[in-house]
Structure formats: C-alpha cells, structure tokens
Design goal:
Blueprint: H1 3-18, E1 20-21, H2 29-45, H3 52-66, H4 69-76, H5 80-83, H6 86-105, E2 115-125, E3 128-136, E4 146-153, E5 160-166, E6 169-170, H7 171-185, H8 190-202
Helix pairs in contact: 2-3, 4-6, 6-8
Length: about 200
C-alpha cells in the first residue's frame, strides 16, 4: 500500500478533528455538523481529568458516532463487495473499524494546537454536502492553509460523515484503490485483506 500518502492523509484528518475552531458561519446542517463535532473532539482532548485510555476511548466513540463505518468499509471493497459473502463483508467491516480507529488515534495528540475554519459547503445532490474547511498551524508564520473537505450526508435524518479529502485526495477512493489492489493480488480473498488490515492496525497499538 502507498503508506506515506495514506499516512499523510490520515494525519491531516486527525488535524481537522482535533483542531481549534475559529469563529465561522455554520449556515447549513452539514456545516454545523462538522463544526460541532470538531468542538466535541477538542473538548475530549483537552479534558485533563481523563486518563489516556479514557481519552482514547471517548475519542474513538466520537469518531464512530459521526461516521458511517459500514458504508465506508463496503465502498472500499470496490467490485469485490458484490462477490463477497455476507459473513466476509461483516468480518471486513469489523476489521476496517479496528484499522481506522488504530490509525486515526495514533495521531490525535499531535494536532490539538491547530486552527480550523469552516469555509463553505456545496450541495452535490439533495442531502449530499461537501463541507470545505481550512486548517493552519499557528506556530509557523509562513504556514499556508490546507484545504480539507468533508462529505456529509443529511438525507437519513442524522448527518453522517462518509468521506473526506486532503489537498484534493479523497480518502475513500484512495483506500479503495489500495484494498482492491491487495484483493487482486490474493485472488479476491477478503480474509487475506482482513489479515492485511489487522497487521497495519497492530503497528499502532
């Protein structure tokens, strides 16, 4: 897998979730959803009464609560999703969740001092928004804002995050390309892909 590129994307994602939010409008439900959950993430990270384990667990629960993990996981299987058995799909979703939580959590402490602003949102289709945000490292005078976009669905009654992009690279598409390549090298074996993800996740534990 393209480890450096994937790592950079995930690090940027964590920067966004843990960033300090600058005042900005939240004119749409999707914008409010992104802004509010960044606030919640920051409150968890800055709560000095929590142990490291409590902070990690609460942050993980926040991520699970705002993302549609199953939808994202199945999407990353590409054409192999339709060929997989229900048991294999369920096992993969569980493995993808372990993988995602392990990788995301490994970076969260590094970005608590970042600043982030919700800039605007675009409705791609009814209930399907892309929320544009910028984040900046205030410790670097010459730092340029990095654009991070969140895709949020609001047509299910409760907003959920289904993808995000950093500097134009959408994580879901990146992961799908990588996972499909692994599957192609292993005869479409979902258990082999699960083993691959668990191996990556174990490196962050």
């Amino acid at each position: 897998m393209k480890q450096p590129r994937r790592t950079a994307i995930l690090m940027a994602m964590m920067a966004c979730v843990t960033a300090r939010v600058l005042p900005a409008r939240a004119a749409t439900p999707a914008e409010a959803f992104v802004s509010d959950n960044i606030d919640k993430g920051l409150a968890i990270l800055n709560n000095k009464q929590l142990t490291q384990t409590q902070r990690r667990d609460q942050f993980a629960q926040l991520l699970l609560g705002v993302t549609d993990i199953r939808r994202i996981a199945i999407f990353t299987l590409g054409r192999y999703a339709a060929m997989a058995s229900q048991a294999d799909r369920d096992a993969f979703v569980a493995a993808f969740q372990r993988y995602a939580m392990a990788v995301y959590q490994s970076y969260f402490a590094q970005y608590a001092r970042q600043t982030l602003r919700v800039v605007r949102s675009t409705e791609r289709a009814p209930g399907d928004f892309v929320v544009v945000t910028n984040f900046l490292d205030p410790s670097i005078a010459t730092s340029k804002p990095l654009e991070v976009n969140f895709r949020v669905l609001t047509n299910g009654g409760v907003p959920v995050l289904v993808d995000f992009s950093v500097a134009g690279v959408w994580l879901g598409l990146e992961e799908r390309d990588q996972f499909v390549a692994v599957l192609g090298q292993n005869g479409g074996s979902i258990p082999q892909l699960i083993s691959h993800l668990d191996k990556i996740a174990s490196q962050y534990n």
